[in-house]
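Reopening this one. Same input as before:
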Amino acid sequence: MNKPDKEIVRAIIGLRENTQFKTIVKWLNDSLISQSISNNKNRGEATIICQGRNLEIADILNHISKAHEYLNNENQSSNMEE
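Same output, byte for byte:
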């Protein structure tokens, strides 16, 4: 997954209070839990594939939860360059 740029981060921040977006985030959280439970049952190559799915979901949720922090850090970096 690509690291989100400022445009994506701003879109995430703009959507945070949207009830439909909150529904999607809840679905992602529920999916992360379900995938983690499912991973416990897998063996061999299936474990690697399912762990990859888990990491992608976790990565998306991490980007969503840290969007404000990312944007603040970017703004501080821009201010230091000026």
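So the earlier flakiness isn't reproducible anymore. For the record, The CA atoms of residues 24 and 50 lie 20 Å apart.
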